[in-house]
Amino acid sequence: MSTETLSKISAEQVNQYLTENPTFFLKHEHLLTDLYLPHASGEAVSLLDRQVSILRDRNIETRKRLNDMLEEGQRNDVLFQKTRTLVLDLLEARSLDDLNQRLVQCCMSEFQVDRVQLSLIDSPENYRNTQTRVIPQSEVEAHMPQLKNSKDCISGIFREEELKFLFAGRQSSTASGIALPLRSNHQLKAILVLGSDDPHYFKAGMDTLFLNFIGDVISRVIPRFMK
To answer: Could you tell me the domains of the chain?
Structure first.
């Protein structure tokens, strides 16, 4: 092949041809011994050695991704079992106080949180005989108005005044937390707050799939005990 003919063949054409003919080098094995690529160390390596190196790196990366997927699956399986335990326990509740106690105990034992606060949004005058915290919606609007219309959890590090409101003044050493607005018929019925002494336990933007599911269950159970 003349030098003039070679100059008319672009790199894209070579790439396309080899892509369409992956067995080309099987029929022209002698070329593999003549092709060399520069190496990071400065030494030249054969194309075959380079291919083996690339395949080895890809295999390592594939195994790493597979291991990451398996670990994530195991973590999700553990979370599912803990969520199942909590949900089944909540369904057995016979009163608002019973629901609150079950929620606190199960969240602390299963999810290793340091603080749990359930606040019912209603008139406190209607719940004189309950130990569960009941606050009017005006307090929510005054202290954390973002919870009024939010459908999602608010997680991360809260300001001191927000913690004081969320945990009824019992925030103590809470370093991170998550607040979940609980709704029924699009109306805010309660707020579930979890707190941890670990500043990294709850992070902004964290995955809340299982917590949202727990919130959905509580939102359907709470109306049974509301007046």
So the answer is: 10-56 (no CATH), 91-225 (3.30.450.40)
